[in-house]
Design goal:
Layout: E1 6-9, H1 15-26, E2 32-35, E3 45-52, E4 55-56, H2 59-80, E5 87-96, E6 114-119, E7 132-134, E8 137-139, E9 146-150, E10 155-157, E11 168-176
Antiparallel strand pairs: 1-9, 2-3, 3-4, 3-5, 5-11, 6-9, 6-11, 7-8, 7-10
Length: 178
């Protein structure tokens, strides 16, 4: 089997569930306004950490994302005929707008470690920007889409090009072998 640079899963979550998730996330009181991916980044953006390494930082959101993650993993295995690693290394959530800047980065340099980026904003137009770039391959931000790739791949979310009335929310899961 030839391994791809990234894998796509669409329609994992219904539109109504996506709207409810988005509404619950932006209404939650767990956000930090000074998140960044790495110390080298130039920009800060709202986000929150649900789980990092072996520490669950928010039990409510951890429980809520476990069901979604199992659905993603099951659909991935059915679609691509191989399974993702079983252990959750981290779950982070990020919110971005036109003032948010990030840099290309890698999540983890370990064998058989995968990143899942989920697009959790229910309304989006491609003309607004916000694409995910994985080592030169550009993937449109599409509501409810999940992009799976090896965590060692350099990636970045493109800048939002237009003022909009809502946040671009991204879910970030990193799965490891153990």
């Amino acid at each position: 089997m030839t391994e791809k640079k990234y894998y796509l899963l669409d329609n994992i979550i219904t539109r109504n569930d996506l709207i409810n998730l988005y509404t619950d996330l932006i209404g939650s009181n767990v956000w930090s306004l000074t998140r960044n991916t790495h110390n080298s980044q130039t920009g800060l953006w709202p986000g929150f950490i649900v789980k990092d390494n072996n520490e669950v930082k928010n039990a409510f959101w951890y429980g809520r994302f476990i069901g979604l993650l199992e659905n993603i993993k099951n659909n991935f295995e059915k679609t691509y005929n191989f399974g993702l690693p079983p252990s959750i290394h981290r779950i982070h959530i990020g919110a971005k707008n036109t003032t948010s800047n990030t840099d290309f980065h890698t999540d983890v340099y370990e064998p058989f470690t995968y990143t899942i980026v989920g697009f959790a904003t229910p309304e989006w137009s491609s003309e607004w920007g916000g694409e995910l770039n994985i080592e030169g391959d550009v993937i449109d931000f599409k509501p409810g889409r999940f992009v799976i790739f090896k965590s060692e791949h350099r990636h970045d979310g493109a800048k939002i090009k237009k003022e909009i009335n809502h946040w671009k929310l991204s879910l970030n899961f990193v799965l490891k072998q153990h």
